[in-house]
Specification:
Elements lengths: L17 E2 L8 E6 L4 E11 L15 E6 L6 E8 L4 E11 L2 E10 L5 E12 L6 E3 L3 E4 L5 E3 L18 E3 L7 E3 L7 E8 L7 E8 L3 E5 L2 E5 L2 E12 L4 E7 L5 E8 L5 E3 L7 E6 L2 E5 L6 E6 L5 E7 L2 H7 L17 E13 L3 E12 L1 H9 L5 H9 L8 H11 L2 E7 L2 E6 L10 E6 L2 E6 L3
Antiparallel strand pairs: 1-2, 2-3, 3-8, 4-5, 5-6, 6-7, 7-27, 8-26, 9-21, 10-20, 11-14, 12-13, 14-19, 15-18, 15-20, 16-17, 16-19, 22-23, 23-24, 24-27, 25-26, 28-29, 30-31
Length: 458
């Protein structure tokens, strides 16, 4: 068996769950829910006390510079400029403690002749990208996109040159189980065919979940079945027991058939919405820590900071950038921001004021982790007493480079990873040409004897 056999059938990168994967702000991210492409983001935004913030915007110039990194993306750092030419800046690093925990080190540097008070904002959010989906409650699900083959009488230009990393005749739809279905005219012509391989471990009858604007007839393993018109997702018994190895559906034409997939159940399948939400539920069991949970995410997150001064704000706003840059109440501990029930839901741990004398520096630390409620509590209770040693050990593993410029270019190149990118039924981490273009420009997939070269337009 090859050392890389675990990558068979996957387009993902073999990288840790924690890494620089955000497309919004540079920092550290965690793959919160791989099935649904949910990503937890943690961003450090330093600034001058009650003045401007240095927000590491990943899509446009914002003063942040990837600085150092190791080859496995487990330890890396960046510099956030606050005053040009390195007069005032913050060096921020993320160092591995274990697979579920990272140390955050923040060194505020004041190279001016004036004593300065700084602030640090620790921003936490959950980013959701998938369509709203449902889940099967009482059986085994075979997604239509995971079919063993699709053949159609007519052909589309996208049949061999699919865009956006989609499979043949795949469409992204709300209300499906996996976020996708087979459609794009499938079923309009007599002879359109889709084949499913049935799993050995499943037990029960096969039910088709579908939509169709008109009544249709199909052949199921050679037997003609009638499908009533279904403007919404509907279920029909295909009359097939799981004892067979495969299931073949052939359309007899007359209208488009949109297939979500096959449910194998002992009784009528039941579905329920997947309730994912980015509005945090949080509590502060101590003055130096925060526990965070999100609806639909099975595990939680924890933040612990080492500064004595700190308070927490929650934002639910249309645009977090405008709020952080232009809303003065962000800097006030005794003011709460109005709840706009907006798309951007952030928690902000604000550490201020942090005094740094002229021509000197100051180091602050934090710990960020994921896990069950008990695991998060354990991580925060046992945060490192000597965090600097963890940072020094991590720094020794940074990629060695002969010149300053090569080091910075290497950090930019290696941190250029985005999650999620949807391709072939999976949400994956992907090295893109740039964070603005987080797509698979050219990917080659071999399906049986057919080779499809897929190009995604920008």
């Amino acid at each position: 068996m090859s050392a890389y056999s675990y990558l068979s059938g996957s387009h993902d990168l073999s990288l840790p769950d924690w890494g620089p994967y955000s497309k919004r702000f540079f920092g550290i991210s965690h793959i919160a829910e791989p099935r649904h492409g949910a990503r937890f983001d943690f961003t450090v935004a330093p600034g001058i006390y009650r003045r401007q913030l240095g927000i590491p915007d990943a899509l446009r110039p914002s003063g942040y510079l990837p600085w150092d990194i190791d080859e496995g993306l487990e330890n890396y750092s960046y510099r956030q400029q606050l005053e040009w030419q390195d007069r005032q800046y913050c060096d921020i690093s993320f160092s591995r403690i274990d697979d579920h925990c990272r140390l955050v080190r923040m060194e505020l540097v004041n190279n001016t002749d004036i004593n300065t008070d700084f602030a640090i904002h620790l921003l936490a959010s959950l980013e959701l990208h998938a369509p709203h989906t449902v889940e099967l409650l009482n059986g085994t699900w075979i997604d239509a996109v995971a079919n063993s083959g699709v053949e159609t009488v007519d052909s589309l230009p996208t049949d061999g040159l699919n865009y956006d990393g989609l499979r043949r005749r795949e469409i992204r739809l709300e209300g499906t189980v996996g976020g996708s279905a087979i459609g794009q005219g499938f079923g309009r012509h007599e002879g359109d065919r889709i084949l499913f391989t049935l799993p050995d471990h499943a037990d029960g009858k096969c039910y088709l979940r579908y939509r169709s604007s008109r009544p249709l007839k199909i052949k199921v393993n050679g037997t003609v079945r009638e499908l009533p018109a279904a403007a919404i997702w509907s279920i029909t018994d295909l009359g097939i027991e799981i004892s067979t190895e495969s299931l073949e559906i052939i359309s007899l034409g007359g209208g488009e058939l949109i297939i979500d997939g096959i449910a194998v159940c002992r009784e009528l399948p039941e579905f329920a919405p997947v309730s994912l939400g980015n509005r945090p539920v949080y509590d502060s069991p101590g003055p130096d820590r925060l526990h965070i949970r999100y609806p639909g995410i099975r595990h939680g997150y924890g933040i612990r900071w080492y500064e004595k001064s700190g308070f927490v704000h929650r934002y639910s706003v249309p645009d977090i950038m405008k709020t952080l840059l232009y809303d003065d109440s962000v800097h006030q501990a005794f003011l709460s921001l109005p709840d706009h029930n907006g798309a951007d839901n952030f928690l902000d741990v604000i550490l201020q004021p942090l005094a740094v004398p002229a021509n000197s520096s100051r180091v602050s630390y934090a710990v960020i982790c994921d896990g069950s409620e008990e695991q998060v509590k354990n991580y925060l209770d046992n945060a490192p007493d000597v965090p600097e040693q963890i940072y020094l050990d991590a720094r020794s593993r940074y990629c060695p480079v002969p010149t300053f410029g090569q080091g910075r270019m290497g950090a930019v190149t290696l941190t250029n990873v985005v999650y999620p990118t949807y391709v072939c039924g999976q949400y994956v981490r992907h090295h893109s040409p740039g964070r603005r273009w987080n797509c698979n420009f050219i990917s080659i997939h071999t399906i049986k004897t057919n080779i499809h070269i897929q190009r995604t337009p920008t």
